[in-house]
Fold Putative histidine kinase response regulator.
Amino acid sequence: MSSEDEEAWASPSLGLSPLSRVRLDELLQELLDRVGEVVTSRERLRSLLDAVVTIGSGLELRGVLTRIVEAACSLIGSRYGALGVIGPDRTLVEFITHGISPDLHAKIGDLPHGRGLLGLLIEDPRPVRLPDITKHPNSYGFPPHHPPMHSFLGTPIRIRDQIFGNLYLAEKQGAAEFTQDDEEIAVALAAAAGVAIENARLFATAHRRERWLAATAEITNVLLGQVNRTSALQLVARRAREVAEAQLVLVLLADEETGQLTVEVVDGPAPELEGAVVPASGTAFARAITGTDHVVVDDLGKAATWPAPITTGPALITPLAATDTLHGVLVVAHPSGAASRPEDLPMLHTFAGQAALALERARAQDEREQLLLLEDRERIARDLHDVVIQRLFATGLQLQTAAQLATRPDVAQRISGAVDDLDTTIRDIRTAIFELRTPANAALRTEIRDLVAAAAEALGFRPELRLDGPIDSAVPDEIRPDLLAVVREALSNTARHARATAVRITVEAVNRRLTVTVVDNGVGASGAQPRGGLVNLRERATLHGGDFAIGPAETTGTRVVWSVPI
Protein backbone atom coordinates (compact mmCIF):
# COMPACT_ATOMS: atom_id res chain seq x y z
CA MET A 1 0.00 0.00 0.00
CA SER A 2 1.29 3.37 -0.92
CA SER A 3 1.62 6.31 1.36
CA GLU A 4 -1.29 8.05 -0.42
CA ASP A 5 -3.59 5.07 0.18
CA GLU A 6 -2.62 4.99 3.85
CA GLU A 7 -3.47 8.68 4.23
CA ALA A 8 -6.85 8.10 2.57
CA TRP A 9 -7.62 5.14 4.88
CA ALA A 10 -6.62 7.00 8.04
CA SER A 11 -8.51 10.20 7.18
CA PRO A 12 -11.58 10.74 9.40
CA SER A 13 -13.50 12.50 6.65
CA LEU A 14 -14.16 9.22 4.87
CA GLY A 15 -14.22 11.12 1.67
CA LEU A 16 -16.36 14.01 3.12
CA SER A 17 -15.55 17.59 2.57
CA PRO A 18 -14.71 19.83 5.54
CA LEU A 19 -18.16 21.48 5.30
CA SER A 20 -19.93 18.16 5.38
CA ARG A 21 -17.95 17.09 8.39
CA VAL A 22 -19.07 20.24 10.30
CA ARG A 23 -22.68 19.59 9.40
CA LEU A 24 -22.45 16.00 10.59
CA ASP A 25 -20.95 17.08 13.91
CA GLU A 26 -23.86 19.49 14.43
CA LEU A 27 -26.40 16.77 13.70
CA LEU A 28 -24.67 14.38 16.05
CA GLN A 29 -24.58 17.04 18.82
CA GLU A 30 -28.27 17.81 18.28
CA LEU A 31 -29.03 14.11 18.50
CA LEU A 32 -27.07 13.86 21.72
CA ASP A 33 -28.95 16.90 23.11
CA ARG A 34 -32.29 15.35 22.18
CA VAL A 35 -31.28 12.07 23.78
CA GLY A 36 -30.23 14.00 26.90
CA GLU A 37 -33.56 15.82 27.00
CA VAL A 38 -35.40 12.52 26.63
CA VAL A 39 -33.34 11.01 29.41
CA THR A 40 -33.89 14.09 31.58
CA SER A 41 -37.62 14.07 30.87
CA ARG A 42 -37.74 10.38 31.64
CA GLU A 43 -35.94 10.96 34.92
CA ARG A 44 -38.21 13.86 35.84
CA LEU A 45 -41.26 11.78 34.91
CA ARG A 46 -39.99 8.97 37.09
CA SER A 47 -39.31 11.47 39.87
CA LEU A 48 -42.84 12.87 39.42
CA LEU A 49 -44.30 9.37 39.71
CA ASP A 50 -42.18 8.74 42.77
CA ALA A 51 -43.39 12.02 44.25
CA VAL A 52 -47.03 11.08 43.57
CA VAL A 53 -46.49 7.73 45.28
CA THR A 54 -44.75 9.46 48.19
CA ILE A 55 -47.45 12.03 48.87
CA GLY A 56 -50.14 9.36 48.67
CA SER A 57 -48.38 6.95 51.01
CA GLY A 58 -50.14 8.23 54.14
CA LEU A 59 -53.65 9.29 55.05
CA GLU A 60 -52.96 11.74 57.87
CA LEU A 61 -53.79 15.17 56.42
CA ARG A 62 -50.97 17.13 58.04
CA GLY A 63 -48.42 14.55 56.93
CA VAL A 64 -49.79 14.57 53.37
CA LEU A 65 -49.46 18.36 53.15
CA THR A 66 -45.89 18.24 54.44
CA ARG A 67 -44.91 15.54 51.93
CA ILE A 68 -46.42 17.58 49.07
CA VAL A 69 -44.20 20.57 49.84
CA GLU A 70 -41.09 18.43 50.29
CA ALA A 71 -41.73 16.50 47.05
CA ALA A 72 -42.31 19.72 45.08
CA CYS A 73 -39.05 21.28 46.29
CA SER A 74 -37.08 18.14 45.53
CA LEU A 75 -38.67 17.53 42.13
CA ILE A 76 -38.49 21.06 40.76
CA GLY A 77 -35.29 22.09 42.49
CA SER A 78 -36.66 24.84 44.68
CA ARG A 79 -34.87 26.02 47.79
CA TYR A 80 -38.02 27.16 49.55
CA GLY A 81 -41.56 25.81 49.41
CA ALA A 82 -44.88 26.38 51.13
CA LEU A 83 -48.47 25.18 50.99
CA GLY A 84 -51.20 27.58 52.05
CA VAL A 85 -54.64 26.25 52.99
CA ILE A 86 -57.51 28.62 52.14
CA GLY A 87 -60.29 29.08 54.67
CA PRO A 88 -64.00 29.88 54.16
CA ASP A 89 -63.26 33.63 54.29
CA ARG A 90 -60.72 33.24 51.42
CA THR A 91 -57.70 33.82 53.63
CA LEU A 92 -54.87 31.48 54.54
CA VAL A 93 -55.77 29.50 57.66
CA GLU A 94 -52.72 27.21 57.56
CA PHE A 95 -49.23 27.68 56.06
CA ILE A 96 -46.82 24.73 55.85
CA THR A 97 -43.25 25.62 54.89
CA HIS A 98 -40.08 23.81 53.79
CA GLY A 99 -36.52 25.08 53.69
CA ILE A 100 -36.85 27.47 56.63
CA SER A 101 -35.40 26.39 59.98
CA PRO A 102 -37.64 26.40 63.07
CA ASP A 103 -35.57 29.18 64.65
CA LEU A 104 -35.93 31.40 61.59
CA HIS A 105 -39.58 30.47 61.38
CA ALA A 106 -40.08 31.72 64.93
CA LYS A 107 -38.24 34.97 64.20
CA ILE A 108 -40.43 35.72 61.19
CA GLY A 109 -43.51 35.65 63.44
CA ASP A 110 -47.09 35.46 62.26
CA LEU A 111 -47.85 33.49 59.14
CA PRO A 112 -49.13 35.31 56.04
CA HIS A 113 -52.87 35.83 55.66
CA GLY A 114 -53.01 35.60 51.87
CA ARG A 115 -52.58 39.17 50.74
CA GLY A 116 -50.30 40.70 48.11
CA LEU A 117 -48.80 38.23 45.64
CA LEU A 118 -49.99 35.26 47.68
CA GLY A 119 -53.50 36.65 47.48
CA LEU A 120 -53.22 36.91 43.70
CA LEU A 121 -53.42 33.13 43.43
CA ILE A 122 -56.43 33.13 45.75
CA GLU A 123 -58.29 35.73 43.68
CA ASP A 124 -57.21 34.30 40.31
CA PRO A 125 -56.40 30.56 40.74
CA ARG A 126 -54.04 30.12 37.80
CA PRO A 127 -50.33 29.24 37.78
CA VAL A 128 -47.97 32.19 38.28
CA ARG A 129 -44.26 32.12 37.29
CA LEU A 130 -42.02 35.15 37.93
CA PRO A 131 -38.28 35.71 37.45
CA ASP A 132 -38.21 38.20 40.35
CA ILE A 133 -40.96 38.33 42.93
CA THR A 134 -39.79 41.67 44.30
CA LYS A 135 -40.58 43.45 41.02
CA HIS A 136 -44.23 42.38 40.86
CA PRO A 137 -46.71 45.25 41.55
CA ASN A 138 -48.64 43.14 44.11
CA SER A 139 -45.56 42.35 46.15
CA TYR A 140 -45.74 43.79 49.68
CA GLY A 141 -42.19 42.93 50.55
CA PHE A 142 -41.01 40.53 53.24
CA PRO A 143 -41.25 40.82 57.02
CA PRO A 144 -38.08 41.16 59.13
CA HIS A 145 -35.79 38.09 59.24
CA HIS A 146 -37.44 36.67 56.10
CA PRO A 147 -34.83 35.16 53.70
CA PRO A 148 -34.44 36.94 50.34
CA MET A 149 -36.41 35.39 47.47
CA HIS A 150 -36.52 36.26 43.77
CA SER A 151 -37.68 33.53 41.38
CA PHE A 152 -41.22 32.36 42.14
CA LEU A 153 -43.64 29.66 40.98
CA GLY A 154 -47.13 29.21 42.33
CA THR A 155 -50.03 26.95 41.35
CA PRO A 156 -53.45 26.23 42.88
CA ILE A 157 -54.37 22.86 44.35
CA ARG A 158 -57.89 21.83 43.37
CA ILE A 159 -60.21 19.25 44.85
CA ARG A 160 -62.84 18.72 42.20
CA ASP A 161 -64.18 22.22 41.52
CA GLN A 162 -62.99 23.76 44.79
CA ILE A 163 -59.67 25.41 45.56
CA PHE A 164 -58.13 23.76 48.62
CA GLY A 165 -55.01 25.91 48.71
CA ASN A 166 -51.93 26.99 46.80
CA LEU A 167 -48.46 25.55 46.31
CA TYR A 168 -45.70 28.18 46.46
CA LEU A 169 -42.07 27.62 45.34
CA ALA A 170 -39.23 30.16 45.47
CA GLU A 171 -35.50 30.38 44.60
CA LYS A 172 -34.83 27.98 41.73
CA GLN A 173 -31.56 26.16 42.41
CA GLY A 174 -29.01 26.06 39.55
CA ALA A 175 -30.89 28.59 37.45
CA ALA A 176 -32.07 32.18 37.55
CA GLU A 177 -35.74 31.34 37.24
CA PHE A 178 -38.23 28.50 36.92
CA THR A 179 -38.90 27.09 33.46
CA GLN A 180 -42.03 26.17 31.58
CA ASP A 181 -41.25 22.50 32.29
CA ASP A 182 -41.08 23.34 36.01
CA GLU A 183 -44.51 24.94 35.79
CA GLU A 184 -46.00 21.92 34.00
CA ILE A 185 -44.52 19.55 36.58
CA ALA A 186 -45.85 21.75 39.41
CA VAL A 187 -49.33 21.72 37.84
CA ALA A 188 -49.19 17.93 37.48
CA LEU A 189 -47.98 17.53 41.05
CA ALA A 190 -50.76 19.86 42.29
CA ALA A 191 -53.35 17.69 40.51
CA ALA A 192 -52.00 14.57 42.21
CA ALA A 193 -51.83 16.47 45.50
CA GLY A 194 -55.54 17.32 45.21
CA VAL A 195 -56.39 13.63 44.99
CA ALA A 196 -54.14 12.78 47.94
CA ILE A 197 -55.62 15.59 50.05
CA GLU A 198 -59.16 14.50 49.21
CA ASN A 199 -58.34 10.93 50.25
CA ALA A 200 -56.78 12.17 53.48
CA ARG A 201 -59.83 14.33 54.22
CA LEU A 202 -62.19 11.43 53.51
CA PHE A 203 -60.14 9.21 55.78
CA ALA A 204 -60.16 11.85 58.53
CA THR A 205 -63.93 12.26 58.15
CA ALA A 206 -64.46 8.51 58.31
CA HIS A 207 -62.22 8.27 61.36
CA ARG A 208 -64.10 11.08 63.10
CA ARG A 209 -67.42 9.46 62.22
CA GLU A 210 -66.15 6.22 63.70
CA ARG A 211 -65.23 8.03 66.93
CA TRP A 212 -68.66 9.71 67.06
CA LEU A 213 -70.34 6.33 66.57
CA ALA A 214 -68.21 4.81 69.32
CA ALA A 215 -69.17 7.64 71.69
CA THR A 216 -72.83 7.24 70.73
CA ALA A 217 -72.61 3.51 71.40
CA GLU A 218 -71.14 4.24 74.83
CA ILE A 219 -74.10 6.49 75.64
CA THR A 220 -76.43 3.74 74.40
CA ASN A 221 -74.80 1.27 76.79
CA VAL A 222 -75.41 3.73 79.60
CA LEU A 223 -79.11 3.78 78.69
CA LEU A 224 -79.33 0.03 79.23
CA GLY A 225 -78.63 0.34 82.94
CA GLN A 226 -79.59 2.61 85.78
CA VAL A 227 -79.26 6.18 84.53
CA ASN A 228 -78.12 9.01 86.75
CA ARG A 229 -78.90 12.27 84.96
CA THR A 230 -75.86 14.22 86.11
CA SER A 231 -73.42 11.35 85.50
CA ALA A 232 -74.91 10.71 82.05
CA LEU A 233 -74.63 14.37 81.06
CA GLN A 234 -71.05 14.56 82.32
CA LEU A 235 -70.21 11.56 80.13
CA VAL A 236 -71.93 13.21 77.16
CA ALA A 237 -69.96 16.44 77.62
CA ARG A 238 -66.64 14.62 78.13
CA ARG A 239 -67.02 12.42 75.04
CA ALA A 240 -68.24 15.31 72.88
CA ARG A 241 -65.20 17.37 73.82
CA GLU A 242 -62.80 14.49 73.11
CA VAL A 243 -64.26 13.50 69.75
CA ALA A 244 -64.83 17.04 68.46
CA GLU A 245 -61.39 18.13 69.77
CA ALA A 246 -63.17 21.10 71.33
CA GLN A 247 -62.05 23.55 73.99
CA LEU A 248 -65.31 23.74 75.93
CA VAL A 249 -68.56 21.75 76.03
CA LEU A 250 -71.70 22.91 77.84
CA VAL A 251 -74.98 21.14 78.52
CA LEU A 252 -77.79 23.61 79.15
CA LEU A 253 -81.24 22.44 80.29
CA ALA A 254 -84.34 24.39 79.31
CA ASP A 255 -87.07 25.69 81.62
CA GLU A 256 -90.26 26.16 79.59
CA GLU A 257 -92.01 28.25 82.24
CA THR A 258 -89.27 30.87 82.62
CA GLY A 259 -87.84 30.61 79.10
CA GLN A 260 -84.33 30.29 80.49
CA LEU A 261 -81.44 27.87 80.14
CA THR A 262 -79.43 26.56 83.08
CA VAL A 263 -75.87 25.31 82.63
CA GLU A 264 -76.07 21.80 84.05
CA VAL A 265 -72.64 20.42 83.06
CA VAL A 266 -69.36 22.09 82.06
CA ASP A 267 -66.44 20.20 80.55
CA GLY A 268 -63.52 22.52 79.94
CA PRO A 269 -61.69 25.51 81.37
CA ALA A 270 -64.79 27.34 82.68
CA PRO A 271 -66.14 25.47 85.74
CA GLU A 272 -67.54 28.73 87.13
CA LEU A 273 -70.30 28.58 84.49
CA GLU A 274 -71.95 25.58 86.15
CA GLY A 275 -75.33 26.60 87.49
CA ALA A 276 -75.42 29.84 85.47
CA VAL A 277 -78.81 30.90 84.09
CA VAL A 278 -78.94 32.27 80.55
CA PRO A 279 -82.05 33.75 78.90
CA ALA A 280 -83.00 31.94 75.71
CA SER A 281 -84.83 34.75 73.93
CA GLY A 282 -82.69 37.28 72.12
CA THR A 283 -79.66 34.98 72.05
CA ALA A 284 -78.14 32.52 69.60
CA PHE A 285 -79.82 29.71 71.54
CA ALA A 286 -83.31 30.87 70.53
CA ARG A 287 -83.14 29.38 67.03
CA ALA A 288 -81.83 26.06 68.32
CA ILE A 289 -84.71 25.89 70.82
CA THR A 290 -87.57 27.11 68.64
CA GLY A 291 -86.47 25.54 65.38
CA THR A 292 -84.93 22.38 66.91
CA ASP A 293 -82.04 22.79 64.48
CA HIS A 294 -78.33 23.29 64.97
CA VAL A 295 -76.77 26.76 65.02
CA VAL A 296 -73.18 27.82 64.27
CA VAL A 297 -71.86 30.95 66.02
CA ASP A 298 -68.52 32.63 65.44
CA ASP A 299 -67.91 33.49 69.10
CA LEU A 300 -69.64 31.73 71.99
CA GLY A 301 -68.73 34.56 74.35
CA LYS A 302 -70.92 36.92 72.31
CA ALA A 303 -73.78 34.46 71.82
CA ALA A 304 -75.37 35.33 75.20
CA THR A 305 -74.81 37.26 78.41
CA TRP A 306 -72.64 35.05 80.62
CA PRO A 307 -71.89 35.57 84.33
CA ALA A 308 -68.18 35.16 83.54
CA PRO A 309 -66.21 35.98 80.37
CA ILE A 310 -65.71 33.14 77.88
CA THR A 311 -62.69 33.16 75.57
CA THR A 312 -63.54 30.68 72.83
CA GLY A 313 -63.95 30.73 69.10
CA PRO A 314 -66.65 29.22 66.89
CA ALA A 315 -69.24 26.99 68.52
CA LEU A 316 -71.83 24.45 67.40
CA ILE A 317 -75.18 24.55 69.21
CA THR A 318 -77.53 21.61 68.77
CA PRO A 319 -80.81 20.89 70.59
CA LEU A 320 -81.27 18.04 73.04
CA ALA A 321 -84.65 16.85 71.77
CA ALA A 322 -86.37 13.46 71.94
CA THR A 323 -89.98 12.40 71.30
CA ASP A 324 -91.03 16.00 70.55
CA THR A 325 -89.66 17.12 73.93
CA LEU A 326 -86.93 19.72 74.12
CA HIS A 327 -84.65 19.20 77.12
CA GLY A 328 -82.01 21.82 76.35
CA VAL A 329 -78.99 22.36 74.11
CA LEU A 330 -75.51 20.91 73.70
CA VAL A 331 -72.77 23.47 72.98
CA VAL A 332 -69.40 22.47 71.50
CA ALA A 333 -66.95 25.40 71.36
CA HIS A 334 -63.55 25.35 69.63
CA PRO A 335 -60.52 27.51 70.51
CA SER A 336 -60.31 31.07 69.29
CA GLY A 337 -58.99 31.22 65.73
CA ALA A 338 -59.92 27.62 64.94
CA ALA A 339 -62.23 26.85 62.03
CA SER A 340 -65.63 25.29 62.66
CA ARG A 341 -66.18 21.79 61.35
CA PRO A 342 -69.51 21.49 59.53
CA GLU A 343 -68.80 17.81 58.89
CA ASP A 344 -69.31 17.20 62.62
CA LEU A 345 -72.86 18.56 62.60
CA PRO A 346 -74.72 15.39 61.43
CA MET A 347 -72.89 13.17 63.90
CA LEU A 348 -73.20 15.76 66.66
CA HIS A 349 -76.95 15.92 66.01
CA THR A 350 -77.21 12.14 66.35
CA PHE A 351 -75.05 12.21 69.47
CA ALA A 352 -77.25 14.92 70.99
CA GLY A 353 -80.29 12.75 70.26
CA GLN A 354 -78.74 9.94 72.30
CA ALA A 355 -78.00 12.40 75.09
CA ALA A 356 -81.65 13.48 75.02
CA LEU A 357 -82.69 9.82 75.28
CA ALA A 358 -80.49 9.55 78.37
CA LEU A 359 -82.42 12.46 79.88
CA GLU A 360 -85.71 10.83 78.91
CA ARG A 361 -84.71 7.55 80.50
CA ALA A 362 -83.45 9.27 83.65
CA ARG A 363 -86.74 11.12 83.95
CA ALA A 364 -88.71 7.93 83.32
CA GLN A 365 -86.76 6.12 86.03
CA ASP A 366 -87.36 8.98 88.47
CA GLU A 367 -91.07 8.93 87.68
CA ARG A 368 -91.22 5.16 88.10
CA GLU A 369 -89.42 5.35 91.45
CA GLN A 370 -91.72 8.16 92.54
CA LEU A 371 -94.74 6.11 91.46
CA LEU A 372 -93.52 3.13 93.45
CA LEU A 373 -92.96 5.37 96.44
CA LEU A 374 -96.43 6.90 96.14
CA GLU A 375 -98.01 3.46 95.79
CA ASP A 376 -96.24 2.35 98.95
CA ARG A 377 -97.28 5.48 100.79
CA GLU A 378 -100.85 5.09 99.55
CA ARG A 379 -100.93 1.56 100.93
CA ILE A 380 -99.67 2.77 104.31
CA ALA A 381 -102.18 5.63 104.30
CA ARG A 382 -105.01 3.23 103.44
CA ASP A 383 -104.02 0.86 106.24
CA LEU A 384 -103.84 3.75 108.70
CA HIS A 385 -107.27 5.02 107.64
CA ASP A 386 -109.09 1.72 107.35
CA VAL A 387 -107.52 -0.14 110.27
CA VAL A 388 -105.75 2.04 112.80
CA ILE A 389 -108.16 4.98 112.89
CA GLN A 390 -111.19 2.69 113.02
CA ARG A 391 -109.74 0.82 115.96
CA LEU A 392 -108.98 4.09 117.71
CA PHE A 393 -112.54 5.27 117.07
CA ALA A 394 -113.90 2.03 118.51
CA THR A 395 -111.63 2.33 121.52
CA GLY A 396 -112.75 5.91 122.04
CA LEU A 397 -116.44 4.96 121.91
CA GLN A 398 -115.85 2.19 124.41
CA LEU A 399 -114.06 4.59 126.74
CA GLN A 400 -116.89 7.12 126.45
CA THR A 401 -119.38 4.41 127.38
CA ALA A 402 -117.19 3.38 130.29
CA ALA A 403 -116.98 7.02 131.43
CA GLN A 404 -120.77 7.19 131.66
CA LEU A 405 -120.82 4.05 133.79
CA ALA A 406 -118.04 5.20 136.11
CA THR A 407 -119.29 6.22 139.54
CA ARG A 408 -116.19 7.99 140.73
CA PRO A 409 -115.57 11.45 139.22
CA ASP A 410 -111.81 11.03 139.04
CA VAL A 411 -112.16 7.83 137.01
CA ALA A 412 -114.57 9.51 134.60
CA GLN A 413 -112.16 12.44 134.25
CA ARG A 414 -109.26 10.13 133.45
CA ILE A 415 -111.34 8.28 130.89
CA SER A 416 -112.35 11.59 129.28
CA GLY A 417 -108.69 12.59 129.14
CA ALA A 418 -107.85 9.32 127.42
CA VAL A 419 -110.62 9.99 124.88
CA ASP A 420 -109.20 13.45 124.20
CA ASP A 421 -105.77 11.91 123.67
CA LEU A 422 -107.28 9.46 121.22
CA ASP A 423 -108.92 12.35 119.35
CA THR A 424 -105.59 14.11 119.15
CA THR A 425 -103.93 10.90 117.97
CA ILE A 426 -106.59 10.42 115.30
CA ARG A 427 -106.09 14.00 114.12
CA ASP A 428 -102.31 13.47 113.94
CA ILE A 429 -102.79 10.26 111.99
CA ARG A 430 -105.11 12.02 109.55
CA THR A 431 -102.44 14.68 109.06
CA ALA A 432 -99.85 11.95 108.43
CA ILE A 433 -102.21 10.36 105.89
CA PHE A 434 -102.49 13.64 103.99
CA GLU A 435 -98.72 13.98 104.00
CA LEU A 436 -98.31 10.43 102.73
CA ARG A 437 -100.69 11.17 99.85
CA THR A 438 -98.81 14.33 98.93
CA PRO A 439 -96.40 14.22 95.95
CA ALA A 440 -92.81 13.77 97.01
CA ASN A 441 -91.73 17.06 95.49
CA ALA A 442 -94.44 19.16 97.21
CA ALA A 443 -93.00 21.24 100.01
CA LEU A 444 -95.72 23.66 101.17
CA ARG A 445 -96.06 21.96 104.55
CA THR A 446 -92.30 22.08 104.97
CA GLU A 447 -92.23 25.78 104.09
CA ILE A 448 -94.95 26.54 106.64
CA ARG A 449 -93.11 24.59 109.34
CA ASP A 450 -89.84 26.34 108.53
CA LEU A 451 -91.59 29.71 108.63
CA VAL A 452 -93.11 29.01 112.03
CA ALA A 453 -89.82 27.67 113.39
CA ALA A 454 -88.03 30.82 112.21
CA ALA A 455 -90.54 33.01 114.10
CA ALA A 456 -89.61 31.35 117.40
CA GLU A 457 -86.55 33.57 117.82
CA ALA A 458 -88.57 36.80 117.56
CA LEU A 459 -91.39 35.48 119.78
CA GLY A 460 -89.17 33.96 122.43
CA PHE A 461 -91.01 30.63 122.26
CA ARG A 462 -92.00 28.09 119.63
CA PRO A 463 -95.57 28.53 118.33
CA GLU A 464 -97.96 25.61 118.18
CA LEU A 465 -98.74 24.56 114.60
CA ARG A 466 -101.58 22.41 113.32
CA LEU A 467 -101.91 21.43 109.66
CA ASP A 468 -105.13 19.77 108.53
CA GLY A 469 -106.23 18.56 105.13
CA PRO A 470 -104.40 18.01 101.82
CA ILE A 471 -102.53 21.30 101.97
CA ASP A 472 -99.72 20.37 99.57
CA SER A 473 -101.98 19.01 96.84
CA ALA A 474 -105.12 21.14 97.27
CA VAL A 475 -103.62 24.64 97.53
CA PRO A 476 -103.10 26.16 94.03
CA ASP A 477 -99.72 27.55 93.10
CA GLU A 478 -101.06 31.10 92.78
CA ILE A 479 -102.29 31.08 96.41
CA ARG A 480 -99.16 29.58 97.99
CA PRO A 481 -97.14 32.83 98.12
CA ASP A 482 -100.08 34.65 99.75
CA LEU A 483 -100.57 31.84 102.27
CA LEU A 484 -96.94 32.06 103.37
CA ALA A 485 -97.14 35.86 103.48
CA VAL A 486 -100.24 35.68 105.72
CA VAL A 487 -98.56 33.34 108.21
CA ARG A 488 -95.40 35.47 108.18
CA GLU A 489 -97.29 38.76 108.70
CA ALA A 490 -99.51 37.37 111.47
CA LEU A 491 -96.53 36.04 113.42
CA SER A 492 -94.66 39.30 112.88
CA ASN A 493 -97.56 41.35 114.28
CA THR A 494 -97.80 39.03 117.27
CA ALA A 495 -94.09 39.38 118.00
CA ARG A 496 -94.16 43.20 117.73
CA HIS A 497 -97.45 44.10 119.45
CA ALA A 498 -99.10 41.22 121.35
CA ARG A 499 -96.54 40.51 124.11
CA ALA A 500 -97.90 36.95 124.04
CA THR A 501 -96.49 33.83 125.66
CA ALA A 502 -98.31 31.35 123.44
CA VAL A 503 -99.47 31.31 119.81
CA ARG A 504 -101.47 28.65 118.02
CA ILE A 505 -101.51 28.57 114.20
CA THR A 506 -103.98 26.37 112.35
CA VAL A 507 -103.87 25.90 108.57
CA GLU A 508 -106.79 23.88 107.18
CA ALA A 509 -107.68 22.79 103.67
CA VAL A 510 -111.19 21.48 104.25
CA ASN A 511 -114.35 21.58 102.12
CA ARG A 512 -112.62 23.40 99.26
CA ARG A 513 -111.57 26.26 101.48
CA LEU A 514 -108.18 27.28 102.86
CA THR A 515 -108.32 28.82 106.32
CA VAL A 516 -105.48 30.25 108.38
CA THR A 517 -106.25 30.92 112.07
CA VAL A 518 -103.72 32.58 114.40
CA VAL A 519 -104.64 32.87 118.09
CA ASP A 520 -102.40 34.38 120.79
CA ASN A 521 -102.81 35.09 124.50
CA GLY A 522 -101.39 38.60 124.35
CA VAL A 523 -102.78 42.01 125.23
CA GLY A 524 -105.40 41.91 122.50
CA ALA A 525 -106.07 44.05 119.46
CA SER A 526 -106.96 47.73 119.85
CA GLY A 527 -110.25 49.04 118.61
CA ALA A 528 -108.63 51.06 115.82
CA GLN A 529 -109.08 50.12 112.22
CA PRO A 530 -106.60 47.62 110.75
CA ARG A 531 -103.58 49.25 109.17
CA GLY A 532 -100.19 48.38 107.74
CA GLY A 533 -99.66 44.65 107.44
CA LEU A 534 -103.27 43.84 108.44
CA VAL A 535 -104.51 45.84 105.45
CA ASN A 536 -102.24 43.73 103.26
CA LEU A 537 -103.78 40.57 104.71
CA ARG A 538 -107.27 41.83 103.84
CA GLU A 539 -106.18 42.72 100.31
CA ARG A 540 -104.64 39.28 99.82
CA ALA A 541 -107.92 37.67 100.86
CA THR A 542 -109.99 39.95 98.61
CA LEU A 543 -107.70 39.19 95.68
CA HIS A 544 -108.73 35.51 95.82
CA GLY A 545 -112.38 36.15 96.70
CA GLY A 546 -111.90 35.34 100.40
CA ASP A 547 -112.46 36.86 103.84
CA PHE A 548 -110.35 38.35 106.60
CA ALA A 549 -111.33 38.97 110.22
CA ILE A 550 -109.53 40.05 113.36
CA GLY A 551 -111.00 40.06 116.85
CA PRO A 552 -110.54 39.01 120.44
CA ALA A 553 -109.79 35.43 121.38
CA GLU A 554 -112.09 33.39 123.63
CA THR A 555 -110.29 34.28 126.86
CA THR A 556 -107.56 36.80 126.17
CA GLY A 557 -105.47 37.85 123.23
CA THR A 558 -106.26 38.17 119.52
CA ARG A 559 -107.74 35.86 116.93
CA VAL A 560 -106.94 36.39 113.23
CA VAL A 561 -108.80 34.41 110.55
CA TRP A 562 -107.82 34.49 106.84
CA SER A 563 -109.90 32.30 104.50
CA VAL A 564 -110.05 31.87 100.70
CA PRO A 565 -111.80 29.36 98.43
CA ILE A 566 -109.68 26.68 96.72
